[in-house]
C-alpha cells in the first residue's frame, strides 16, 4: 500500500481518511492543527495522540521531507535565501524578506521552469517537475519554524510558473488562507504569472482576493517574444484582456512586473509604449532593475536611468514604484542559488 502525503490533505479529506482507518473523525482536527498550526515535522511530536494512533499514522501516511541544505543571509538588509532538498533530492529556493509590515516569504511552485525567460536563471535546464501543494506549504512552515516568527505575507514568485501548476496552486491558496491553518489573509498573497491566459481567467473565476502579478517585461509583442518565449503562445493583447477580466471579476488591481534591462526595454520609446498600454487601466507597475545572471549577458540600468523611466510613467498618471532591491550581496537573481548548487561539481 502506498502511503499518503498527509500534509497535502485538506481537513475534509483528512476526516475521510480517519474513517478509512477506523479512527474517529474528530482526530482529523487534532492532526490538522499539529500539521498546519504547530507545524510539526514528525508524527511523534503529536503528543495529545495515543501512541497507537501515532503508529497508525506512520503506517498509512508520510510527511514530505524538506531538508535545509544552505542558508544565505544578506548583510545589507537581512534577506534570507534558503535552499531546500525534497524527497526526491530535487532542490528549491525560498526567500524570506523582512518589512515594517511583517515577514514575507517568496516560494517556488516548480522545480525548474519551462517558460524560457531569457533573463532568468530559474529556467536554465528547463522544468523538472511541479511541486505538490504540500511542498509549497512546507516552504512557509519551514521558514516560520526556522525564524520563530509569524509569516504574514506570501509571494508565489520564486522558481517556476505558478499557473503551470494550477491545481496544486489553488489547493495551496485554499489551505494557507484557511481558518484551520495559518490563516494568512488572501489580500496578503500574490501570485505571479508570465501570462498563461486560460489559467488567468480560471483564477479570476475562483473568486479569491489575492493579487495577480503579470510578468510584462516588454511593451510590444515582438519585444515580449524576445525576452519571454512563452509570449509566442500568449499574445500581448490576450494577456492584457485576461488582466482586465481578472480586475472585473475580483476588483483586485493587477500588478505589472517590469524587469528593466539596460538597452533592451528601458528606452524612451519603451516608456511611451508602456504608457499607451496602461493609461486607461487601473493597474500598478513594479519596476525591477534586472538581477544579472552569470549565464546571460543582460545588465541592469543605473539608478538614475531607472528613476528617469519611473518619472516618465508618473508624469502620465501611471501608478508606479521601483522595487527596493533585496539581498544584493547574496545570490539575488531568482534561481541563482539553486543553479550554483546543481553546478557545484562542474
UniProtKB/TrEMBL annotation:
<dbReference type="InterPro" id="IPR007197">
    <property type="entry name" value="rSAM"/>
</dbReference>
<dbReference type="Pfam" id="PF04055">
    <property type="entry name" value="Radical_SAM"/>
</dbReference>
<dbReference type="GO" id="GO:0032259">
    <property type="term" value="P:methylation"/>
</dbReference>
<feature type="binding site">
    <location>
        <position position="291"/>
    </location>
    <ligand>
        <name>S-adenosyl-L-methionine</name>
    </ligand>
</feature>
<dbReference type="InterPro" id="IPR048641">
    <property type="entry name" value="RlmN_N"/>
</dbReference>
<feature type="binding site">
    <location>
        <position position="192"/>
    </location>
    <ligand>
        <name>S-adenosyl-L-methionine</name>
    </ligand>
</feature>
<keyword id="KW-0819">tRNA processing</keyword>
<dbReference type="InterPro" id="IPR040072">
    <property type="entry name" value="Methyltransferase_A"/>
</dbReference>
<keyword id="KW-0408">Iron</keyword>
<keyword id="KW-0963">Cytoplasm</keyword>
<feature type="active site" description="S-methylcysteine intermediate">
    <location>
        <position position="334"/>
    </location>
</feature>
<feature type="binding site">
    <location>
        <begin position="215"/>
        <end position="217"/>
    </location>
    <ligand>
        <name>S-adenosyl-L-methionine</name>
    </ligand>
</feature>
<keyword id="KW-0949">S-adenosyl-L-methionine</keyword>
<keyword id="KW-0489">Methyltransferase</keyword>
<keyword id="KW-0698">rRNA processing</keyword>
<keyword id="KW-1015">Disulfide bond</keyword>
<feature type="binding site">
    <location>
        <begin position="160"/>
        <end position="161"/>
    </location>
    <ligand>
        <name>S-adenosyl-L-methionine</name>
    </ligand>
</feature>
<protein>
    <recommendedName>
        <fullName>Probable dual-specificity RNA methyltransferase RlmN</fullName>
        <ecNumber>2.1.1.192</ecNumber>
    </recommendedName>
</protein>
<dbReference type="InterPro" id="IPR058240">
    <property type="entry name" value="rSAM_sf"/>
</dbReference>
<feature type="binding site">
    <location>
        <position position="113"/>
    </location>
    <ligand>
        <name>[4Fe-4S] cluster</name>
    </ligand>
</feature>
<keyword id="KW-0004">4Fe-4S</keyword>
<feature type="domain" description="Radical SAM core">
    <location>
        <begin position="99"/>
        <end position="329"/>
    </location>
</feature>
<feature type="active site" description="Proton acceptor">
    <location>
        <position position="93"/>
    </location>
</feature>
<keyword id="KW-0479">Metal-binding</keyword>
<dbReference type="GO" id="GO:0008168">
    <property type="term" value="F:methyltransferase activity"/>
</dbReference>
<dbReference type="InterPro" id="IPR013785">
    <property type="entry name" value="Aldolase_TIM"/>
</dbReference>
<dbReference type="InterPro" id="IPR004383">
    <property type="entry name" value="rRNA_lsu_MTrfase_RlmN/Cfr"/>
</dbReference>
<feature type="binding site">
    <location>
        <position position="120"/>
    </location>
    <ligand>
        <name>[4Fe-4S] cluster</name>
    </ligand>
</feature>
<comment type="function">
    <text>Specifically methylates position 2 of adenine 2503 in 23S rRNA and position 2 of adenine 37 in tRNAs.</text>
</comment>
<dbReference type="InterPro" id="IPR027492">
    <property type="entry name" value="RNA_MTrfase_RlmN"/>
</dbReference>
<dbReference type="Pfam" id="PF21016">
    <property type="entry name" value="RlmN_N"/>
</dbReference>
<keyword id="KW-0411">Iron-sulfur</keyword>
<keyword id="KW-0808">Transferase</keyword>
<comment type="similarity">
    <text>Belongs to the radical SAM superfamily. RlmN family.</text>
</comment>
<feature type="binding site">
    <location>
        <position position="117"/>
    </location>
    <ligand>
        <name>[4Fe-4S] cluster</name>
    </ligand>
</feature>
